[in-house]
Structure formats: structure tokens, C-alpha cells
Amino acid sequence: MGTAQSREDRITDSESDEGYEEEEEEEEEQYDDALSDHQNTQSSSSTSTSSGGNTPKAKWVISEKLTSYSFTKENGDNDENCWVLEVGTKVRVRVSTEMQLKMFGDQKRVDFVDKAVWALKFLSDEEYRNFVTQFQNCLFENVYGMEASEENKVKVYGKEFIGWMKPEVADDSMWEDADDLSSGSIPVKGNRELMEEFEEAANGGVQSLALGALDNSFLVNDLGVQVYRNFNRGIHGKGICVKFDAGGSRIGGSPSSSTPKKALLMRAERNMMLMSPENEGKPNATGLKQVDIETGKIVTEWKFEKDGADITMRDITNDTKGSQLDPSESTFLGLDDNRLCQWDMRDRKGMVQNIATSGSPVLHWSQGHQFSRGTNFQCFASTGDGSIVVGSLDGKIRLYSKTSMRQAKTAFPGLGAPITHVDVTYDGKWVLGTTDTYLVLICTLFTDKDGKTKTGFSGRMGNKIPAPRLLKLTPLDSHLAGNNNKFHGGHFSWVTENGKQERHLVATVGKFSVIWDFQQVKNSAHECYRNQQGLKSCYCYKIVLKDESIVESRFMHDNFAVSNSPEAPLVVATPMKVSSISLSGRG
């Protein structure tokens, strides 16, 4: 990423980058020259090939004025047959989402990444569409290990999800009917945005970010918990650090455990739960420690136990989107590979356990389910009313009502990539899943047999399920983000009040924080979606670029959105620094 320093600590717009538009115009001229040289050629697999460089200001260079492509099957890393795309003598790449293939139907062109950014321009619309169809069929087979037939697609997606395998026949009415931004909000589109940024040292080794909706927010690093004061323009360090025990006992599951990777605020944000992995490389923990933020002391070391046996948890979260504000909160949710449950810090009689008399107290498994078969849960989140969304290794996203954790009300099929993080809006109408190479945005709304509009958390969605939308980086930005950098931590902006709508989405990849306008993504007439085949993909976003890999990017609570602003400040944490960025709606 050293080549991208010209964009360091700036916010760029994927829609209005003038340099990129100029390059596209020059590139069109280059393509026209190439095509005029070969206007009589009728080869069914002829294209012109251009390659891009490794910097934001790189120019397109004609690689081959006339070339050919082919999809061939070859043995992969695990001796499995997989489809490979070959273009002339320059490109040979496994067909996958890591190519970040982007379609330009009006230009009969596709761009993709393979060690550099490549563009293919086709001689006819038919040839372009044939290529896209072949690519999508090969991608399906590489992902699912079966031919992309109608029968196999039904096997993978299910009859109810016809819109997922045939987006052109999907019912998009729910996207259109969904509530727009509240009347008092300021849309980002059409406003000149002023990004104000300041940053502070974070004392190194930042592992996680815990934003508060009240007075304070927190960074967990190798030394302890750093305390920050919340303001309308961001967070400022208070110079206070709750240090970990110096005697070798770290906050987490055991004396030998690593630095906490998960911090959860509770009880009106006066307490914090800290959870450490039991073994390096795996997130699962055997317990957690409860810290009193006001005194800076560990008040309880909790163990996870069920039916007398020690168990692990890979993640914890609050019962609802706003329950961390409840001063009497005594329960929270837990997730493991095959477990979904609620933990209660009170004993079975409802009494708060006393650490002085109980030794190492055991959390009470108040409700939940231990699944016998491999669900491979990875991540979860809760809505404003306590409904739960769970993401899995196989890409499935399950919706559970607040009254039952035993069986999902709705299970969305996977698109082939594991879900590494999941979030949901306060009202439960929208779910955001994070994969390594894209985000998937799902509308949970449906109309029941009585004509009432409900969410998939409260009932089975039937056969008119809206197709999801994908949020992706352009091939150039994906290339600049780095080969080994993956999307992580996709979040909606943060509201905890009925009637308020989240306005932005943010995710992190490498040194980039990527921000999408939620209303723009929901708009079916958005220009990104024109001339696309397959699921609609949105490429319009803003990038905040830092000088080191970003640990986490989160919007502050809606309480801290100033007047005439489209959003509360964005907080970006790197291992060494924490930055606050304000989005101004001034015209």
C-alpha cells in the first residue's frame, strides 16, 4: 500500500473521482482505436484488453488490441476441478469473487483484478452477455461444486428464493416500499460534504472499540482499557487507562489467556464485559471478566457452564440494540459454533451472585439451544426488540424471534462465502452480512397471507422474498486495498429509538474505511444498478484512507449527530491511533 500514500488520510468518492472519469474517457478512445484497427474481425471470443497500474492515478494501457478468452477446467489446490479464466497470454485466474469482476453493460466491458486491474472490451453486446453468463455459471460451479443448472440452483437456494437465483424476476417492491429517511434528515446526495478529522495516539496494540451512547467510549489495547469522552465532533481521550492485572492474570478466560478481543458495555455503560480467546487463532473463550468502569476494578470472573460442564463462547452481545443503556441489565446473549443462548448473571432464583461467597461464579444458562448438527455459527446481532440474526460459515443468515432460539423463523441461503460479521437495523427490516470480498444487504420485509407487512424475524417469509444487494469495491480500489486484505466489521449507523432510520453503512478493508449511503443503496433506480446482470451491486461509496491497517470503524450513537449533519461522527481505530470524522451537510 506504499503506492497509495497520495490518498492517505483523505476521503475519496467512488462516484465523483474526476481522475477516474478522465481515465475512463481516455480508455474509451483507446478502445475505439483498437476496434477501428480490427473492425472486420468476427471472432466469437474476441476482446480488447487493457491493464491498469498500482496507484490511484494509474493510466489504462492497451495490453492486447485483439485477443481471445476461454474458461477451462483445471485441478485446483485441493486437486478439485475448478474453472479458470484465461485471456490471451497475460491473464490466467481462478474464477472467484476475489476477482471483484465489475460489469459495464453500456460499454460492453468488464473490469477485474488479477495481480493488476484488467479491463475487457467486447465487440458485440451478445458476446459481452455470453461472457457474463459463462462467468456466473463457472463461479456457481466453483463455489458449490455442481453445474449451474436450474435444478441445482433450486437445491442450493430453495424454491422460496427464486429471486436470489433469478434476480431479473425478483420482487423489488419491498425495497421501494421500505421507509425512507425521516423527514428531518439531510440526504448526503447533492450536498457538499466537509470531512473534519482529528486523531490521537492510542498507546498501541488496539484490539477492539466499544462505543458508548452516553458519556464515554473505550478502546481495548495490550495494556488495558483506554477511556474516551464522547462529543458531537467525535471522541477525545480522557487520559485514563484501566490497566490489566500486573501479576500475569489478564482480563479474559484464564490467567494464560491473550489480550481481550471483545468488549461489551452493560448496565447503563457502567460495567464492561471483556472476553479473551482461550487459544491463539480461535475466538472461543471459556469465560469473561466483568469490570466496574467507575472504579476500574474487576468485580467478577465468570465461567461459561452448561449442565455442570465447562463450555466455550465465540461471541457475546447485548439482548437488544439499546439494552446497554439499562442500569438493571443482568442478561446478555452468547454464541458458539453450535450454540445460541442467553446468559444471566443472577442465580437460578434471580438473585445477583456474590463473588465473595461463590468463588468463581457460573453464569446461568437462562434460555437457548445447543444444536446437534454443525451449524458453524460465526457471528450474531440483536434488534431493538431482542430478535436475533446469526451468520454462519456456509454463508447462511438465520433470523430468530425474541421468543425462541430453537428454530429460525427464516434462513437465507448462503451466496458461497462465509459470513464473518453481521448487523441488523433497530427495526429489524434490514440485515447486513460481511464476507471477505463483499457485503450482502438483505431486506427482511414480506407480506403475509392477510396482507400485513412483517419481518422475517416474526414469521416465515413465503415465496416472494426480495433479492439481496451486494456492496463491493471497484476493482481498482480492491487492488489498492491489497491482496490479503478482506472486508470485516460491516455496521449500520447506530440508533436506539423507534421511528429513526439508520442512514449509512460502514465496513473496513485494509487501510480503508468504506462508507455507503443507505438510502442510495436501497434505491432500485440508482445508476449503479443499470445494465447489470445478476444480483444488484453498488459501487458508490466514500473511502477514508489511513496509514496503517484499520482495526474497526463505527459510527457514534445518533445522539451525537449535530444539527445540519447527515450522520453522527465516524470513529476509526488503528493499532496506534483513533480518529474521529464528521460528515457535514453544508451546501
UniProtKB/TrEMBL annotation:
Protein name: Vacuolar import/degradation Vid27 C-terminal domain-containing protein
One matching Pfam family: VID27
Domain Vacuolar import/degradation Vid27 C-terminal: 243-530
Compositional bias of kind Basic and acidic residues: 1-13
Biased composition (Acidic residues): 14-34
Ranges of compositional bias, category Low complexity: 39-55
DUF7135 domain span: 49-158
SUPFAM superfamilies per the UniProt record, alphabetical: Putative isomerase YbhE
Segments for region (Disordered): 1-57
Gene Ontology CC terms, in alphabetical order: cytoplasm; nucleus
